[in-house]
Amino acid sequence: MYRFIYILIFSIGVGLPISAQVFKGVITDSTGQPIPFSTVFVKELSYGTAANLDGEFELKLVRGTYTLVFQCMGYKTESKSVSINAPVTTQHIVLHNIAYTLSEVTITSDAEDPAYRIIRNVISRAPLYANLITSYKADVYIRGSMDIEEIASMVKLLARKEMKEQNIKEGDKYLEESVNDIEFHTPNIVRQNVKSIHSSFPGNNPNNSSGAIGYLAQNLYQPGSFGNAKSPLTAGAFDYYRYHYEGEFKAGNYTVDKIKVIPKGSGPQYLGGFIYIIEGLWCIYSLDFTINSQLGTTIQIVQSFAEVKPGVWLSMNNHYKIKIEMALGKSTINYHTSVKYNSININEAVYRSTTNLSEAYLQNKTGLSAKAKKNLQKADKKIEKLSQNAKMTNRDAGRIAGLLNKKKEIATKDSLKNNHTFVETYKTTIDSAAFRHDSVYWNSIRPIPLTLNEENSINKLDSTLLVRRNSTDTNRLNKAGNKKLAKAFFIGGRYEPDSTAFFQSSGFIYPKGIQFNLVDGLSVKTNYYYQKKLKNKKQYYLRFTPGYAFTRKVFTWDSQIDFTNSKKYWQSFGLKYGSDSKDYNTHGAMALENTVYTLFLRENLSRLYLNHYLSAYFNQQLSHEFNIQTVLTAEQNRTSKNNSDFSFFYKETKEFRFNTDGIPLESMADHRNLQFVFSVSYKPAPYYYEINGFKVARPGLNNAPTINLTYIKGLPIAGFDTDFDLLKLKVDQKIRTGQKSWFSYVGEGGCFANTKKIYFNQYKHFETQPLLIGVKSLYPSFQSIDYYSNSTDSWFVTAHAKYQSQMLLLKRLPLIRNRMWSESVMTSYMYTPEKGSILELGYSIGNELYNIGGFAGFDSRGFTMAGLRISLSIFSAKEISISL
Length: 884
Prior knowledge:
By secondary structure, the chain is of the alpha+beta class. It is 16% helix and 43% strand. The strands form 4 sheets. It has a 20-stranded mixed sheet that branches. It has a 15-stranded mixed sheet that branches. The two termini are 17 Å apart.
């Protein structure tokens, strides 16, 4: 469990060579107190490491003379020439506090803080520094540890067996260290080879090669480098932060400015702390930031940079401290890396541009199209004009950064149009002997000495592994597997007999499967699912959803068998069979909404009929741009009346509506429906790669709209009643308009070419959300119409549009600036011959869990409604993703 949380937070990768000579010591301040996590950099080797919590460091070096740089934020940097000629060389390093001096520019009541001049220079160059390195090879040592300070009583109760099996104890410390090679190529290609790994984490399996902690190298010059937190060095940062000049100091031949970054709000989108900038180069010297993230998590990031080439500064040491305090317990995670750059290649043209923005990227790259070159030249002229402004404003700095990012996007997209080679972005390989190194090896390779607690954790490792090796009795494992299968079946959960199959269920008691409506009365349902992987990228799955309707006294079910082949272009086919009550409008009230409104407010929202069906389907991906879907369904449909009159409240003052209320009586009758559906979708994807002989759309680059054409035919053969033809065309698209803003639209039109015999459940129905409080998303749906009165068997046109931003109107207010909310402005339009035009305008604010909005509706006669809508979408989402 904790192993999973740890690997979830750290997800990228890391090596270090063995040397015979040892140079070690302790780093303290002038009073003799150790300086934890201070850094040591060997100039000749481009090699950096860190001291441990007790200020102790240890380097393995071959004989020779080295220039070592010792530094820590708040202390003067010390450089020493050290000769290594003995097996062990020891030194005590003392770092003295920095006495900051103010520059000649003083801060007065009407003058700008000097920090803003410095930050503007950094922001305008950030895209250049983000793309300065074209490739490098490095050996990186990485160490992560977790202190389990407290485990909640509920976790101890529910997971006591798992905790016992994995030997998880409150108060224990777990540690993992690894030695890896890492190779990087621009823009984002990383190759990681794990040479050795040593772990005392619960659940660690020495025969499992998939669990190495990754290498974190956050790039503050890039947007989104710290998850949800806005970088203080990228375009738009002035909306999130204030900056204060703290002074300067000398570090060798460089002047370093200390800047305090002050967030304008609190929450996971803000970070705060100190950043040190090298004057003139306008790049990072070091940083110390804290993010108060969500779910009781606080993240501290400390990075030290070193001059690996003249004027080129790269991160040599990373330290992350994550404090987790939530309902499940309390833990502290520490993460350290030591990097030795073996080779570094930089883009010389980009480097020259950092000192003279007016020449940034003026040379067009060879191989680009004429259109791309023309667009790059336009951007160059704008950059040149802005950079020559003697008094660069905050807006100018942001515009320069934006133009540089746009130039990169233009060049990237143009080069990829004719380059369809598939390259795996991140690839990890693990040496076969990675888990076999003993304590002698680790003591000789480890650059960051262990603390006493970490030593105790590692000492437990060998005995723990011995116990695990002696507990692999086949009969015991089979019995444990049978128990897990029975538990998953009756109580709910997931059971994996091997790596090719799994079974999961919701158990006999499934709260989300409890529903109430006036046709079925109380009904209960649960889910069972089994999936099996076959050879050659083929698999099948079985799904069964049994239930019981107490008022109708019948069993209900929904079942499916599906076979999928993804060896080349994806295809699937299968059968569905079931019997249940269904809503005439499949986009009507959700089951939870109808249950709550029926029981508590005595309002039955849904109109239901009884459906018994058998369906066969086939889906085929024709290319990376085209998909087709065919479905043939045979149904027996029966109308139903209200079979129950139960509610908790208002029994004497309110009457339920009839199950036929609001539906044209001539369109309702028992009938048999044989229906054929053919659908084709097309999404232009000029950016794709080829793998194993077929094309795959490149994610994130193809922003064209998706076009879907659907034909539905009611077949009046073999005793089936319906006879109709419906043709629909739908277009939807989501376009990124900024770093934190999007524009989305959905348009649909259709026409019934034939309605010789059609029933209400075959009408065209619309997505609506007329409730004050509901669980359906506010977009794309109509807020001013009910579920059934606008349904049509004629022709229709609908359109929805939304602009979403994290900083639009209300989010600019100090009281809510720190909330993880987005704002949206929306509009919706509908036309049917029966009802004419309907127009809606709305505004909402919220997140993936909930949204609050105000809407106004108009029809052909004028204003119809204005009201509040609250969407609790957390209750309808199948999955909620929350980033720390």
